[in-house]
C-alpha cells in the first residue's frame, strides 16, 4: 500500500488557499482513478482505491489530515503505523514557495526548509518520506509568506493550477510504481511551466 497525503487546512474557509494545493492534488488523483467515497479515519478524510502500474495495481490511501497544516504529522503517523508501512511508502503533496508557480519537483528525504507541516511529518515518521512539491511562488519577502500561502489563488493562476493538478493525477501510475523521477518529468511534460525566479512577485 501507498499513502498519498495532502497538506492543507480543513474547512471551506481555506479550500482555495495556496496552502491547500496538496489537498487539491490528492483529491484529483482520487477522482481520476475512481477511488471509493470519502470517510473519516486517522484524524483525516480518507479515500481508498487502486492505481494501475505495469507490475499490477497498487492499493493507495488518500489522506487529508484534519488536524490543521502544522500538525499533520500526527495523522500521517497513525495511518502509516496502522498499515505497517515505512516512511518510503508515504508521499506528501504540499505547496512549495521556493518553486515558481506551476513548477513541480519530487524529492526524497531532506529538511523542512521552514515548512511547519513538513517539519511535523518529519517529527512523527522521520525525514525519509517522499515529497511532491507543487510550486506556488514566493511573495518576495519572508514577512509576507504567511499571508501569501493563506490567501486564495488568483484568477490569473487558474490556468496553470488546473493544468498542474490534472497532470499530477494523470501521471499517478508512475508515482505508484515508485518511479519518482519519471513521474516528475511526465507531470512537467503534461503541464509545462516556465522555470523562473519564485520571487518574481517581489515589489
Please explain how this structure is put together:
The protein is of the alpha/beta class and 203 residues long. The protein has a single domain (2-190), classed as Rossmann fold (3-Layer(aba) Sandwich), CATH 3.40.50.1470. The chain is 33% helix and 21% strand. The chain has helices at residues 21-32, 73-82, 116-125, 145-149, 158-170, 172-176, 180-190, and strands spanning 2-6, 39-41, 44-51, 58-65, 90-96, 104-108, 130-135.
Brief sketch in words of this structure:
This protein is of the alpha/beta class. The chain has helices at residues 21-32, 73-82, 116-125, 145-149, 158-170, 172-176, 180-190; strands at 2-6, 39-41, 44-51, 58-65, 90-96, 104-108, 130-135. The protein contains 7 helices and 7 strands; from the N terminus they run E-H-E-E-E-H-E-E-H-E-H-H-H-H.
Number of helices, where a helix is a run of at least 4 consecutive DSSP H or I residues: 7
Mean pLDDT across all amino acids:
94
Instruction: Write the H/E string, N to C.
Output: EHEEEHEEHEHHHH
Architecture in CATH? 3-Layer(aba) Sandwich
Which secondary structure elements does this structure contain, and how are they paired or packed?
Layout: E1 2-6, H1 21-32, E2 39-41, E3 44-51, E4 58-65, H2 73-82, E5 90-96, E6 104-108, H3 116-125, E7 130-135, H4 145-149, H5 158-170, H6 172-176, H7 180-190
Parallel strand pairs: 1-4, 1-5, 5-7
Antiparallel strand pairs: 2-3, 3-4, 6-7
Helix pairs in contact: 1-5, 2-3, 5-7
